[in-house]
Amino acid sequence: MKVSRFVFNATLFLLFLFPTKYAQGSSPQWQSVVEGIEYREFYQLGPNHLFVARMDRNNANLTLETSIAQGRINGGLETVSGMAERYDQALSYWGGSWGARNQVVVAINGYFYDTETGVPWQGQIHSGWYLKRFDDLESGSGFAWKLDRSLFLGGCVVHRPAKQFITHVTTGKTIPFDGVNVPREEDELIIYTPQYDASTRSEDNGIEILVELSQPMLIIASPAMTTGTIREIRDRSGSTLIPFDHVVLSAQGSPAEDLRSIFSIGDQIGISQEIKHFESDCQTPNPFDWSKTYAGTGGSFIFMKDGVLQKLDDLGAILRNARTVIAFDERYVYFIVVADRDPFGNVGMSIVELAAFVKNTLGATWGIALDGGSSSTMVVNGEVKNRSDINPDNAEHVVANGVMMVIAQPEDRSTTFGVGDRVRTVGSEETAIRLGPGTNYAAIDFIPPNSGGVIVEHSNQLNGIMAKGAFWWKAAFGSILGWVPEGAMAPLGSP
């Protein structure tokens, strides 16, 4: 009886001190954040505080996107709010061409990562780029959002070696590649994309071929391919910079000899890659097709399939914890974060409890869990929602990647300069010249004030494109070639 009275009195104290936080129920209604994206908080017995955003899948101006810590899959770590800021107003490929910009509205953390290296445990697709492979024969391939606005949850996948290859478009000759954005080993051909790092970080014991692509390196199965043009061949010259719309074919040993014998500067190449998809048993074929997936990341527990709650016996799913999940139905995609355990009453939720909430309260029919615990974070319009002022130790943690709801803002252009125009840098400070059009891309070098340069042609016709609050131009300053904001340059000879 004394124990019951103690619990009762403690509950009354919490309700008195934090009446809104610990009362069962929910905020009165969904609150519109932007057209097509709404936000709401729920309070459940436990007690538990849930933060939920939903996106209308039928709103053509909205899309999902993933984020990459520090803009590099090679071991970057960053807060969810930092990644949201990094990719806000950044150039995207939504709609099937470069030009739109992301207006980041909602952001959550992504999948688990290696705490020593910062590399995500599972695969990732960002703006169409298949930048990290999902592990073969493991049921962790997560969620996939495609260019046609379809969405599915992945199971067990296999990358059959014979289905991952590079084609010389003119001759039809093919060379298999061994991996994407991983350190190159002996007798391997690895493809490096711009999301790996600013450069390949390779040794000078192989060959590297720089290829400018016409589109991101999508998951496209043969006979289709992502095409590009060879711009540079660097033999035994070490690490190669990776501009935003390029890849590097990096090889040593026998694959390097194949590259040397087949490819020349100016040649057209094609990259084909395929995922064979199974259910979680890695035997039953899964009907969902990964081709032209636009955004995706790994997931831990698929807790609901087509409205059916899944049986889970993993201890990580049974114990109560802070959670981050993605759920969806035919109309909405939901981002859900459960508050972390704290000394003021929140206890976290098991996956079973959360699945019941997703099905019975939200009405969603599919659901997958991402990383949880101290990583769980939701950001709405730049504001971190699930970090409490009453718990000063509950600071935002760094993670390896995330998932975002964004508005695809329309393309905007400047016509201030033209190809061949002579320019000079202006201002009192050095000007950064970058690997792509936006401050989210790494700086190649810094150009002193009043340095002369020239606007050069860009094959994908993006000169003058708006990104990260500025119009960007591809320019050459001596031997340095990259992207410079319009405000940092003036016509040569102007005052």
Give a short synopsis of this structure.
This protein is mainly β. Strands 1, 2, 3, 4, 23, 24, 25, 26 and 27 form a nine-stranded antiparallel beta sheet that branches. It has an eight-stranded mixed beta sheet with strand order 14-13-20-18-17-19-16-15, with helices on one face. Strands 32, 35, 36, 37, 38 and 39 form a six-stranded antiparallel beta sheet that branches.
- Which whole number gives the mean pLDDT? 91
- What structural class do the secondary elements suggest? mainly beta
| Main sheet attributes: strand count, strand direction, barrel closure | 9 strands, antiparallel
What level of helicity do the residues show? Answer: 10-25%
- What is the tally of helical segments? 6
Strand content: 35-45%
Extended strand count: 39
Report how far apart the termini are: 86 Å
**Low confidence ranges:** 1-24
Q: What shape does the CA trace take?
A: globular
Number of domains: 3
Write up what this structure looks like.
By secondary structure, this protein is mainly beta. It folds into 3 domains: 23-156 and 290-409, no CATH class; 161-272, no CATH class; 422-491, Roll (SH3 type barrels). Helices cover 11% and strands 37% of the residues. It contains 6 helices and 39 strands. The strands form 8 sheets. Strands 1, 2, 3, 4, 23, 24, 25, 26 and 27 form a 9-stranded antiparallel β-sheet that branches. An 8-stranded mixed β-sheet has the order 14-13-20-18-17-19-16-15, with helices on one face. β28 and β29 (383-384) form a beta hairpin. The termini are far apart.
